[in-house]
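Appendix B. Chain record.
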Amino acid sequence: MILVTGGLGYIGSHTVVELLENDFEVLIVDDLSNSSISVLDSINSIVKKNILFEQINLCNKKDLSLIFQKYPNINGVIHFAAHKSVRESISKPIDYYYNNLTSILNILEEIMIKSEFCPLIFSSSCTVYGRANAFPISEDEPIKLPESPYGNTKKVAEEILHDVSLTNKNFNVISLRYFNPIGAHSSLKIGELPLGEPQNLIPIITKTGIGSIEKLIVNGSDYNTPDGSCIRDYIHITDLSKAHVIALKKLLSKDSSKSFEVYNLGTGKGTSVFEIIKLFESVSGLKLNYEIGSRREGDVPISYANPAKAERELGWKANLSLKEGLSSAWDWEKRINNL
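Structure tokens predicted for this chain:
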């Protein structure tokens, strides 16, 4: 059984679908603080398989212990559950450090109690690289102090996981450093569903297109990039979720020479905000309402991946295009707005 924390969130829900379609038994744990229980029904409607679900907060050590006691056959963990807004983390650093680090520490304590092999996949982020020196960014890029408390929680969590993995032969870790996931499942039954004000560029764009947001604010047009806007690596959520299944199979087969390994998950291509706007207008047939605003604290000018290591060692690479990702994100937005 695979324990998936935060399994009703955006990346978690898509990964759960991939796991179930690969015949893994899945237990989802989610506190529903940034997700909806309706996603469980949506997953069920896609895979038509039994899914176990428990609503708990991972920072509650007692409740988490009861989960491991109730399900003694947990033999792997994929840890998504975390607060995830760069901007919010700057205004609420204590909340982010407490939630994101307490949760992983509690999970580790429960895994250490188990005597059998129980590996973990960690949902990390390209934010651990801070302001990178070279592009595309490889896993060999020196880790700097990230630009936000959110990014720093990912950096510190990786350090914790690395140290713990060295102490227990029954515990191996793969940390997957995401760049910018976008899009929706091909069924359009699950997709990015932010509660409250969206923080990521693509849902802001689609909600501006649909009219629920008045205008898109481009956060800065004076960066040292070809058109002045930030450059990011946008990866289709389906490609991203498939990587977790591949990484999990690698861990469970014990086919790893290192107890802790990291992989970038991206396309290897950088796209600017203005290029995204232009492509969205082409996909949707709309003229997007936007204006130039000030830079946003915590943003780095450029971030795109060198995904060669994942392709070489995992046999994984991104196959779906940016246009396909944007198209599915727009179709998803129209669907949830009944258009």
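Further analysis of this model is presented in Appendix C.
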